[in-house]
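Action item from last meeting closed. Structure (351 res):
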């Protein structure tokens, strides 16, 4: 804003300087032509005084000096005959004229420019900014700038700039608020939709975990009702085992299937992890073991894992319609149930 104000003020002052120069030259040519036509000097002075009298209320005016700087004609008749000292006004020679930057510094700082002005009277309301000689005479036309009037114009210009910037800022802030509100409402709707989906998924997971708890209760009840036989026949060909023969180092150990948390293949070795954290190995493949286990108690999660309902600690949502199973004791790998198997897993829990 300060830069724009300065540029605008310089343009205003440039216009004032050009106008003062033009007015001084026109008066000098007019006076010169009157003298050349043989009109008496006093008559010429009277004509000039009559034409400029009272013009000092404007932003710029002209007066006429003699070679010694004495006022011959001036808009204020009371100052006629007074001496114009070089140090009492901002005067430059014709070949070194004032520019808008100098004029701006003069109005802002009231400091000497190039040693021309000492400013003994800072309250002076006008300054001589241009001098032009009258041909065929020892007179000089001096163009004055009415500093007070110009400063009022500059202050008004600054105020207008300030009002425009404040109004523009208010409009920009309002537009930003509306934009943020619009974008916010868009993202709020998207977030609400996502929250609704998340709420639905949370309900589904809650239902799954509830189904898991109910499923465990049914399994425990079934195990209590079963006989103590090691093998139970199912149909004519498939046997569901109650115990498995496993190895721990060099020992053969028979474990109950209801003590198994999960079974996994690890480097082509079948490992059985029990609920108490103990681990055993088996010579049977994962497929062979799964075919001999109770489908109500065990589920084939993927190619590497068979999980027990008793070993499931928590069911979590994972990716796009996939499920992540957390076991107790925990497994070294994440157990992910694919999208295709997720529905089968849910049915298993609802058996």
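Sequence:
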């Amino acid at each position: 804003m300060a830069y724009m104000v300065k540029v605008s003020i310089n343009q205003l002052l440039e216009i004032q300087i050009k106008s003062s120069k033009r007015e001084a030259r026109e008066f000098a040519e007019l006076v010169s032509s009157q003298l050349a036509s043989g009109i008496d000097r006093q008559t010429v002075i009277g004509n000039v005084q009559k034409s400029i009298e009272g013009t000092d209320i404007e932003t710029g005016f002209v007066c006429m000096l003699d070679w010694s700087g004495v006022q011959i004609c001036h808009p204020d008749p009371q100052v006629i005959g007074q001496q114009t000292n070089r140090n009492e006004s901002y005067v430059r020679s014709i070949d070194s004229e004032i520019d808008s930057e100098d004029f701006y510094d003069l109005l802002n700082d009231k400091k000497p420019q190039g040693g021309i002005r000492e400013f003994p009277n800072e309250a002076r309301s006008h300054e001589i900014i241009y001098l032009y000689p009258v041909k065929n005479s020892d007179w000089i036309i001096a163009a004055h700038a009415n500093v007070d009037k110009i400063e009022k114009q500059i202050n008004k210009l600054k105020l207008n700039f300030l009002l425009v910037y404040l109004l523009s800022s208010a409009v920009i802030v309002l537009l930003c608020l509306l934009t943020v509100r619009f974008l916010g409402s868009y993202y709020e709707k998207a977030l609400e939709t996502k929250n609704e989906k998340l709420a639905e998924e949370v309900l589904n997971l809650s239902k799954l975990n509830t189904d898991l708890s109910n499923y465990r209760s049914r399994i425990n009840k079934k195990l209590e009702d079963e006989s103590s036989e090691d093998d139970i026949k199912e149909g004519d060909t498939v046997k569901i085992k109650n115990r498995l023969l496993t190895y721990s180092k060099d020992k053969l150990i028979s474990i109950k299937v209801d003590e198994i948390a999960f079974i996994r293949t690890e480097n082509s070795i079948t490992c059985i992890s029990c609920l108490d954290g103990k681990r055993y190995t088996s010579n049977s493949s994962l497929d062979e073991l799964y075919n001999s286990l109770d489908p109500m108690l065990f589920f084939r999660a993927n190619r590497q894992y068979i999980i027990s309902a008793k070993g499931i600690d928590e069911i979590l949502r994972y990716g796009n319609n996939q499920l992540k199973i957390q076991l107790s004791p925990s497994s070294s790998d994440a157990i992910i149930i694919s999208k295709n198997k997720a529905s089968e897993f849910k049915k298993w829990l609802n058996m």
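Note appended to the action item: The helical segments are 2-36, 41-52, 100-109, 147-225, 286-292, 339-349.
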